[in-house]
Structure formats: structure tokens, C-alpha cells
Design brief:
- It contains four helices and no strands.
- The chain is elongated, with a radius of gyration of 28 Å.
- The model has no long low-confidence stretch (mean pLDDT 82).
- The chain is an all-alpha fold.
- The chain has two domains: 1-31; 55-131, Orthogonal Bundle (Cytochrome Bc1 Complex, Chain D, domain 2), CATH 1.10.760.
Length: 133
């Protein structure tokens, strides 16, 4: 009998908690975001626009977002992946986009875990610029 009362009390508490959450959700749906009364003036002049990022900077960003997880450092590589500093444009195109090496290339590591990244086709030259400077 004692256990039935404890289970019943737990059930009631859970029910109250769910009702409270429903109440909070319905209250927050009625609150409107404040409207902006003052517009922020555009203080940037046309001549002061941010310069286009260099190929090196774009390539560095690609490396940091797509390559660094495995290759860690372009000059030293990672535990599973070889260094890729100084890689030729041909090697980058074939390995990154198609997942294969050029015919005359000998791989630095025997692992075959690198996936293909065909969506990086527009960024290969930027990546090349970063890995060769």
C-alpha cells in the first residue's frame, strides 16, 4: 500500500510538471518581440568596404574546416594522415575530389581512410595556395 501511494504521488508531480511546461509554452507564444524604433545608420562608406580575402586566407579556412580534423598540421600531419604541406595541385585535385592518387605518386601513409570531398572543387586552388606558402 505504501508503494502505491509513492507511485501515485510521483505520477501527480509529473502531471503537474507537464501542465506547468504547457502553461509556459502558451505564455511565451503570446509575447511579441519588440519592434525596432530606430534604424541603425550605415556608417560604412563604399570606399571602406572590407577587402576580398586572399586565396591564402580562403585556403586556410578550408583547411581548418575540412582538413584539420585529421591532418592536424599541414607540415607534420596527424597520427593517421600524412602531412600535406607542399602538395601539388594535381595531387590535391585527384585526392580531395576523386579519392585517388596520381599514377606516379607514392603515398606517405598506407591508410585509405580519406573520404572524397567533391563539393570542394571551387576551393582546391585556395587550398593549394595555403598549403604551398
Amino acid at each position: 500500500m505504501k508503494y502505491i501511494v509513492i507511485i501515485f504521488i510521483g505520477f501527480i508531480l509529473n502531471l503537474l510538471f507537464i501542465l506547468w511546461l504547457i502553461h509556459l509554452a502558451s505564455c511565451s507564444a503570446k509575447i511579441e518581440a519588440p519592434k525596432v524604433l530606430i534604424e541603425t545608420p550605415n556608417i560604412t562608406k563604399e570606399s571602406e568596404e572590407a577587402p576580398e580575402p586572399s586565396k591564402y586566407d580562403l585556403g586556410k579556412k578550408v583547411f581548418q574546416q575540412r582538413c584539420m580534423g585529421c591532418h592536424v598540421n599541414p607540415k607534420t600531419g596527424g597520427s593517421l594522415c600524412p602531412p600535406n604541406y607542399g602538395s601539388s595541385l594535381e595531387l590535391l585535385r585527384l585526392k580531395v575530389l576523386e579519392g585517388k592518387y596520381p599514377n606516379s605518386y607514392k603515398s606517405k601513409k598506407t591508410t585509405k581512410i580519406m573520404p572524397r570531398f567533391p563539393y570542394l572543387s571551387k576551393d582546391i586552388e585556395n587550398l593549394f595556395e595555403y598549403l604551398n606558402n
